[in-house]
Amino acid sequence: MEVLVEKETKYHVGIDIGGTFTDLVLSDHEGNVNRAKALTTHGKYTEGIIHALKKISKKMNTDIENILSKTELFINGTTIVTNAIAELKGDIVGLITTNGFKDTMRIARSARTNDYNMHTQTSLPEIVKRSAIVEVDERVDSNGKVLIELNVEQVKERVKYLVEEEKVESFAVCLLWSFKNPQHEQQIKAIVQEMYPDKFITISSEIYPVEREYERMVTTVLNSFSGQAVEKYVDILEGELRERGLQVPVGLMQSIGGVLSSDEAKYRAINLINSGPVGGVLGANNLGKLLGLKDIITADMGGTSFDTALIKDNQLGLAHRAELNRFMTGLSMVDITAIGAGGGSICWIDERNAPRVGPESAGSFPGPACYGQGGENPAITDVVVALGMINPDLFLGGEMELNKEASVQAIKNKIADPLGWDVNQAASGLYRIVVNSMSNAARSVSIEKGFDPRDFTVISYGGASPLFIAPICKNLGIKKVIIPANSSVFSAYGLLWSDNIRSFAQTVNWNVNLGETEEINDLLNGLVEQAKDALHSNGFAEENIQVIKEGDFKFSGQAFEITIPLPDGNITADDKEEIIAKFVETYERLYGEGTAWEGSDVIMLNCRVTGVGKTVKPKIKSNQNKVKGEVTPHKFSEVFLPDINEARKIPTFVSQGIYVGDEICGPAIVEAGDTTIYVPENSTISKDEYLNYVMEIR
After folding, report:
1. Which residues form the Hydantoinase/oxoprolinase N-terminal domain (predicted)?
2. What is the Cα–Cα distance from 487 to 380, expressed in whole angstroms?
3. Domains along the chain with CATH numbers
């Protein structure tokens, strides 16, 4: 007789550390999902994670040790690098560069602060002191040939000076043309590690080995600036989780949209920038595939920021040479536009006596006034509480009670009374200000990049986004919104959809019109082997690895380039014509019809290979057997509707009373656990078979 053995439950855990909340999602192989939110504990991020784990274990009637011992995948999206660079709180960095290039960092190349007034320009933040930049005698030419050997004794003297006189805590090394020949950088790294084995060091030929000296130098410096903070964070996190039963390593989300092992993340700290919001974009793309949606605009509004991205044909848009706190880097990352417009964004009056919102945030402490933690300045959460759009007794599903009177008083004292308005007028105006700001952000990822937002569906998530998304969509002419079942923790949920990714690039300067294909194919195949080897070393079999090839192209004589995909196999003579045609098509979509440089050769400056290690994705349960019920309001609430500037008594529905197929007509409020949805007049909302909310905007 066959004996049936019950399969042991295994968990996948995703944790997104935001500016206000730390979100946790736990999924099992059957598609069951549990979630928890805890206030982020700045400076001690692991405390917020442990608090979230305690909350979820309590919900599941178990303990942290039982959950972690059964966890086979643990992915973390963290703001630690983003915060270090934004707040300029990192290591004291010593920079070693080629003789004659000490001032590259100070000369700089970054966006101007004001395009219309040359006198308002300000210097870049000082992330490495000039006195902590030293030059060494060495020289390599553009072909990688050594012209001047490295002066080893001089290097030792300069390294000693940086430690003893400048008190540097980490080193960055960026030499001229080192991406063509890394020999001298590798020698300096060995010297530093021998003299000061406890010091963190980054060399540019390992972190960003491509052309453009300034971006390469900045990327290298920023990696060293934030490296030890990541190293400390990862060691503490893995240590505490291991003590509580976790037996697998922690994976860290990268800005490019894939997971990096904890050991690799300690050296490639800069890859973790923006890692939390990336999870949401990954989740939106996979949800879109499930629902048959190819063209998506994401809208993620949490406690600190509003993040938006565009997905075309289920392909995530990537930004290359990303700018971080005005530093132009060589990083590639998922193209996300972020503005300071979250639930904690502070409302204030500027010197022109005009109301403003953000970018400063109240954070998790003291938080908005309604949190009752001593905050006196009104935040966007106070605005929607004062308007009656959020039930103070059901915030975070009832886990946290809000003080509406504190919200009203803060808006009255700081905004309404100084402007001579009543509280409803002030709150309504602040709501519309933040809606317009978020609409402009969504325009920047769509219209400004040659896409019509009316052709896209919005996927709206984050704890605050569903309260604002309908008027945003009206501004953009978008007709359909999907609000995921786990909206408030969707970025954490999206982490579970991530693959392992390793990306390698090389400068080639290949003339597509005239160049032979053999040499470029050899270079690409070498990068393919590097990517595969990196994934093999992390346990991925050949059949679970996908390879993606790209190139950075420009017309001959241009300064900068745009990225387009390359063929999967070797490039042939016939492929060259298709590559040029694709480049011209993309160029004219970005810059306008007729802008292509007719007759000019096309140059591929860099080639890039990304290896993708495919992972097991969460199962999403279908609820097809549910039948349409007679949906009735939970209650009627007095709400001041900011989009029509009028008070109304409107129906409020609770998620548990809404079944698949039910349709609700606005104006209405839907209380969906730890998020709230505003359905404006003439719009409708319903639940699909996966328990997502589908809003039709009219």
Report:
1. 12-195
2. 18
3. 90-231 (no CATH), 278-498+641-698 (no CATH), 500-613 (3.30.1490)
DSSP lists the bridge partners of residue 96 as 134, 173
A 10 A CB-CB count for 125 gives: 11
Q: CB 579: neighbour CB atoms within 10 A?
A: 20
DSSP, residue by residue, 566-617? --SS---HHHHHHHHHHHHHHHHHHH-TT-S-TT--EEEEEEEEEEEE--PP
Query: Alpha-carbon distance 56 to 62, whole Å?
Result: 9
List, in sequence order, every beta strand (DSSP E) within 512-570. Answer: 545-555, 562-565
CA 492 to the chain's CA centroid: 12
CA distance 222 to 88: 10
| DSSP state letter for 631 | -
User: Residue 545 burial by CB count (10 A; 0-12/13-18/19+): exposed, middle or buried?
Assistant: buried
Q: Can you give the C-alpha Rg of the chain in angstroms?
A: 26
Residue with tokens 């096309």: 602
What is the Cα–Cα distance from 225 to 223, expressed in whole angstroms? 5
Q: For residue 667, say if its preceding peptide bond is cis, omega within 30 degrees of 0.
A: yes
pTM for this one?
A: 0.89
pLDDT single digits (tens) 623-644? 765 555 678 898 999 999 998 8
Reported confidence tier of residue 119, pLDDT bands at 50, 70, 90:
low
pLDDT tens digit string along 367-380? 899 999 888 999 99
Share in percent of the chain as helix, strand, coil (round to 5)? 35, 25, 35
